[in-house]
Here is the input.
Amino acid sequence: MRKGHFNLKRRQAAIVLPYPIILILLMLMLFMSKVWGQEREENTDKTLSPYFVVLSENDAASLPLKSTSANVNIAGVIADVKVAQIYKNEGKSPIEAIYVFPASTRAAVYGMTMKIGEREIVAVVQEKQAARQAYEQAKQEGKSASLLEQQRPNVFQMNVANIMPGDEVRVELNYTELLVPEGG
Here is the structure.
């Protein structure tokens, strides 16, 4: 073989060889995406613990969970659940946070009360735009306010504005959930 020339047959073999490997990898990725998709679907049928996400530019902002309690009454295939949680703003400035409640697709929230410091906020069902306007106005006025919205069929989100330093945030969430027997 002369310099500058190459064997065309070897080159073709080198190009053809990766195709079966690529095909196998694509089939494996397709299979894994179906498995991951099934896991994600299964996870939407479970109610998870609610939590806060702090929307503050100040990294020192802290809103740790201090306590959680749950009261569950079961009648047949219906569970009536009350979750109570206490958080505290341990930062040095007022913060805005989002309370996230990932519920199962079989859950229905029917009540929410939030107490921030000495102020109690009871959730009231309103038209979406009117509720957002009332929240934004209270937030701009420096008042403690909250806005509960359903982001997806199974995820509720409550925005909470002006949680003052040292304030405790007490959240009570009431919901019912259809129970589905598993394993007999």
In short: The first helix runs from residue 8 to 16. The mean pLDDT is 75.
